[in-house]
UniProtKB/TrEMBL annotation:
Native species: Algoriphagus chordae
Function field: Required for the transposition of the insertion element.
Family statement drawn from the similarity comment of this UniProt entry: Belongs to the transposase mutator family.
Region (Disordered): 47-69
One protein family per Pfam: Transposase_mut
Keywords assigned: DNA recombination, DNA-binding, Transposable element, Transposition
InterPro entries xref list: Transposase_mutator (IPR001207)
GO BP term, pick one: DNA transposition
GO molecular function, one term: transposase activity
Name of the protein in question: Mutator family transposase
């Protein structure tokens, strides 16, 4: 016995010093882990038969053993699992269909997936780090455990009032019925009255329109939103009509940056610099009156040459110029959709390696995990939010109640 103990200690020490896995396939402590797990399962079976109130007299009793291999962050181990005649035994230490023993291994797999790693990359990482083989199918099953969290997050209650909301889309490829389809993932980023950013929702669609936006805005309303002060968007088809049918008092600010980009597409390249310089006098004016005066000058100079561009500015002017009603600090936030585009840039770091997603849910899983990680950085209010929210409370009197005693 002493010789066996001495040999075990030596093997443990040798493997420890060489960096080998003590609990791996040939690890010195692997038999101890196996023995511990099997004894724990036997004890659970004894308790199950004792507490079932049917017991031996009911005819339920032990019915041989099965085997299963479980993975853990210290390697894998094959164990004998007790079975009962009625198949009513539900062990706790290792559940019936459980193949991953350690919770932190599952957490690491989901974290690696959320950072954009492929299933094969994750499998290789687990093998290298823990000397444990985890198939891509098992990894896929583990990441699917996120699905209930995705659905819960998509349906979570929201606050009553959001000061500013930005809407913009990301575009992805998704396989459906053997075909690759292009889909837009519309994300809604909001600022609550505490000045903190929050993704209110993400919605997949192949096309936009008033009906689609009505569904999105109705979803926000059903989850508790009663008012949105300012909505900032690109010129989304059907959005103004939809938002005013659900939130009739919301002010719409169209993205100036998108409008400028779209305008310059239709200006001859040799004249773009001059046109852009004249256009800056419009959107960079100190007041709306000065901006409208500059817009008239722009039309007089360029209107005949670029009538479509000027017609776009004039027809959208009321929604393009909404930001002139605010101080410069608020103007900076609302005249562009940069806030939500910044969020999109962070998401793309995770999704850029993907070709086509296997399903809508595969896409939503990954974006959800990326979003949860991004939102951890949004722990503080926006810079100088105390001053900003007071200005908004004055502008939207009665609609934004501040928590001041």
């Amino acid at each position: 016995m002493k010789e066996q103990e001495s040999a075990l200690k030596k093997k443990v020490l040798d493997q420890f010093l060489s960096g080998e896995n003590l609990f791996g396939k040939n690890g010195a402590l692997s038999p101890i882990l196996k023995e511990f797990l099997e004894e724990s399962l036997q004890a659970e079976m004894d308790e199950h038969l004792r507490d079932e109130d049917k017991g031996w007299s009911s005819g339920n009793k032990r019915n041989g053993k099965g085997t299963k291999t479980v993975k853990s962050n210290v390697g894998e181990v094959t164990i004998d699992t007790p079975e009962d005649r009625h198949s009513s035994f539900e062990p706790k230490i290792i559940e019936k269909r459980q193949r991953i023993l350690a919770d932190n291994l599952e957490e690491q797999i989901i974290a690696l997936y959320g950072m954009g790693n492929s299933l094969r990359d994750i499998s290789a990482h687990i093998r290298e780090m823990y000397d444990t083989e985890v198939s891509t199918q098992v990894i896929s099953d583990i990441t699917d455990r996120v699905i209930p969290k995705v659905k819960e997050w998509q349906n979570r209650p929201l606050e009553e009032v959001y000061c500013i909301v930005w809407l913009d889309a990301m575009h992805f490829k998704v396989r459906e019925e053997g075909k690759v389809r292009h889909k837009a993932l519309y994300n809604v980023l909001g600022i609550n009255k505490s000045g903190r950013k929050e993704i209110l929702g993400m919605y997949l669609s192949e096309s936009e329109g008033a009906n689609f936006w009505l569904q999105v805005l109705s979803d926000l309303q059903h989850r508790g939103v009663s008012d949105i002060l300012i909505a900032c968007t690109d010129n989304l088809t059907g959005f103004p009509e939809a938002i005013h049918s659900v939130f009739p008092k919301t002010e719409i600010q169209l993205c100036i940056v998108h409008q400028i980009r779209n305008s310059l597409k239709y200006v001859a390249s040799k004249e773009q610099k001059e046109f852009a310089r004249d256009l800056k006098l419009v959107y960079g004016a100190d007041t709306k009156d000065l901006a409208e005066s500059a817009l008239l000058d722009l039309e007089e100079k360029w209107g005949k040459k670029y009538p479509v561009v000027l017609r776009s500015w004039n027809s959208n002017w009321e929604r393009l110029s909404a930001y002139f009603a605010y101080t410069k600090s608020i103007r900076k936030m609302i005249y562009t959709t940069n806030a939500v585009e910044g969020y999109h840039r962070q998401v793309r770091k995770v999704t850029k390696t993907k070709g086509a997603f296997t399903s809508d849910m595969a896409l939503l899983k990954l974006v959800y995990l990326a979003t949860r990680r991004i939102e951890k950085k949004w722990s503080s209010p926006l810079h100088n939010w105390g001053l900003t929210v007071q200005q908004l409370a004055i502008k939207f009197e009665g609609r934004l109640k501040l928590d001041i005693n």
